[in-house]
Prior knowledge:
There is one protein chain. With 123 residues, the chain is mostly beta strands. The protein is 0% helix and 51% strand. It is built from no helices and 11 strands. It has strands at residues 3-7, 10-13, 18-25, 34-39, 46-51, 58-60, 68-73, 78-83, 92-100, 110-113, 117-122. The strands form 2 sheets. Strands 2, 4, 5, 6, 9, 10 and 11 form a 7-stranded mixed β-sheet that branches. Strands 1-3-8-7 form a 4-stranded antiparallel β-sheet, with no helix packed on it. Strand 4 and strand 5 form a beta hairpin.
Amino acid sequence: QVHLVESGGGLVQAGGSLRLACAASGRTFSSYPTGWFRQAPGKEREFVAVISVSGGSTYYADSVKGRFTISRDNAKNTVYLQMNNLKPEDTAVYYCAADPDGSWSDASDYEYWGQGTQVTVSS
């Protein structure tokens, strides 16, 4: 069992930066690919980024590529999402998720989820 807790969300102006963290409990967390997803009001949850177990492979949604960076520190059981040059359309609740069984970009394939952290970008 893995318990995930996100932090680092907040209100920021367009062009600003935030760093989200996903802290995990459970000894097997470092064995799972871990992803970030987001959900804006009235929209479906969408893939943002994912990182492999070792951290050697990362994948991003086209909408965030070049602006967001996912990383992990397995010694601290934590995955990060550095978000730069934020845009109003990045406003959403951001969730981390672990242990995908299948497609790494499909939310329905993930076993464990955090409660989410709100990111609001003002124009």
